[in-house]
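Something for you to look into today, if you have time. Could you write out one complete protein record for me, on any chain you like? The space below this message is yours for that.
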Amino acid sequence: MPTFSAPDGTRLAYRVTGDGDPLVCLPGGPADSRYLTDLGGLSAHRQLIIADLRGTGRSAIPDDTSTYRCDHLVEDVEALRAHLALPRMDLLGHSAGTNIATQYAARYPENVGKLALIGPSPRAVGIAVSARTRRELALLRDHEPWFPQAFAALEAIAGGTGGDWEAVAPFFWGRWDAAARHLHAAGRPENAEAVALFAAEGAFDPQSTRAALAALQAPVLLLTGEFDVNSPPRSAAEFAALFPDARLVVQPGAGHYPWVDDADRFVAAAVAFLG
């Protein structure tokens, strides 16, 4: 994998797949970016430059672990853009990675061509997802064979009485089949410290981020799944309203990984936006 140097000297890796105009992709987690695969075949239309966030995948662990914080990761993205010699770049983020992408667009708006937020997390802009909203979405799956155990775990987590996060995994997928199970295992974060410090105090400044996004000239796509309990359509719609030029797509039958649940539909929507 090719590498580049972050501003603090940490060696960071990325992989390149596909042909066409570059699209820089940021994974969630923080987790090994391999779970993004080729985004359901999007690599047939765009050259995907998929970053390994610091301390994940083949990127090095930083000397200063406080740099795992989301706002610090923004500077890693800017270093990648400079390394690639892109005057402006199209940027895609998934899940927690959308917090990095959103803050990047707020800090470096002139460097963003198009911004695609997949399964968007609205933490960077201060939008809270209520337990009630997640519960309503979960109840749409009550016909699934795995529902009773998964729903009980979700209720326990929402009620603050513990709960098994592995048991709620089926809610994140439109189909809880062998492919979903495999990718769920591949996308499980392995660096607990990176996860714990990602949203540490000071990671987000919703007021200033919202103000910057209100002036963003780049077009924005927010794409979420119909059943996505992590990034519910209602919250994604509220998020989309913060941008001057935003398109909201709710993919039918999909969860938090829409390129897995229905690759053709996902790629069609992404290409329609990205070109």
